[in-house]
Amino acid sequence: MKKLYFFGMLLLSAVLVHAQKSEQATLSAIYTSALTNMEAYNNLRELCTEAPGRLVGSPASERAIQLLKAQVERLHPDTCYLQNFITPSWRCKSPAQAAVLYGPKKEELNVINLGLSVSTPSKGIQAPIVEVQSFAELDSLGSNGVKGKIVFFNKSMDNAFIRTFSAYGDAVEMRFSGASKASKYGAVGVVVRSLSTELNDFPHTGVSKFEVGVKQIPNLSISTNDANKLSALIKNQKGLELWMKSTTETIESAHTSNIIAEIKGSVHPEKIILIGAHIDAWFNTQGAHDDGAGCQQMIDVLRIFKALNIKPMNTIRLVLFMDEEMYQSGSKEYAAFVGKEKREHIACLESDAGGLLPIGFGIDCDNDSTIKSIMKQTATLADFGIYLTDKSHAGVDIEPLKAFGYPLIGLSTNSQRYFEYHHSANDTFDQVSRREMQLGSAAVAGLVYLIDKNGI
User: Fold this and answer.
1) pTM of the entire structure?
2) By three-state DSSP, how is residue 399 classified?
3) Which of 68, 151, 185, 304 lies at 20 to 30 Å from 27 by C-alpha?
4) Weakly modelled stretches of the chain, pLDDT under 70
5) Which domain holds residue 159?
């Protein structure tokens, strides 16, 4: 019996070693395929060149949908189709303008409309300006200090944060709801310091929202360099006023689409591993990092599986979501579809942290054993530079799927430079490193392969 046990254990050990070697060989092949291929990078160039400013409902967004669908179809997936839906849409009809006025002097400022901002009167708005660094400071001024004025929110992103997304989370509320809060006190307009870790001349946009029943007022973002200039002028000049002008519009019903494609599973076609990114980008940018690179990485996962003839046991479903930036209507539409379809999603992966060097994954899941299993899978990628996987936010577009109990996984990058580009005219194709973007493709493809093979 002892001999039988010994030989059994020896055989099991040999099988495990062989499986590990086979697994590592496949992972190496995945990385080689990603790093030696130009298709995704060339596709990103095409997307950035042919469809910049692809905000939901815009002509550019429709070009992007057709272009990306054609790129996917060239890989001959088992299915590829559009998931059509209707959503509101907002657009900037002309570039925003602003100038600071003191005495006979007038200085132009680098500004841009924030999403969902309303138009000024045709000649613009001119009013005294008041600077605040926080909502507490705004509250302390109250109506007496704010009514009839333009509020300047000048809170910087805190560079003491090691993780730049934490710095973003710390400051984003000013942009998101500053105009709504200022309007309650009678402000006639708002200017918000750009959310950037660096000093530059690129104003960064992003969505802003008003509470129901609050009067909507014009809402602009100002570059970090000009925010510092404006702050210095407020301190040193008496009788200073700001003039601002913008023209925007909201369309109640815009027709648009998500893109869905699949490689069907060979054993469990009814089970899904979802990979996703978002198509849309702000009106002022090519959207190369946010999120053109993510779209191309996820498309490239399909290419890698096809090129290496990896036949997944479970269905790999690619979803390119429309409208992450404004209303998240694409993710809501897909979640409603999932509720009706009732097909299990083993895991949902998203890439929306730029085409920068991948360092790990963020896991959003309430089940500790599932988290440990995913972390064990990602540890297998340590030799390929994946070293930082933790429990954190995974992605806006896959977030509604957590309600179904599905584990969410987001690709994490070295994001130290991400907010130099984010939501600005600086987010261009030439700012993306092909090699770093392709390492992201390989990391996602590698994790998908491991989850498909081993489960979680």
Assistant:
1) 0.93
2) helix
3) 68
4) 1-20
5) 95-248
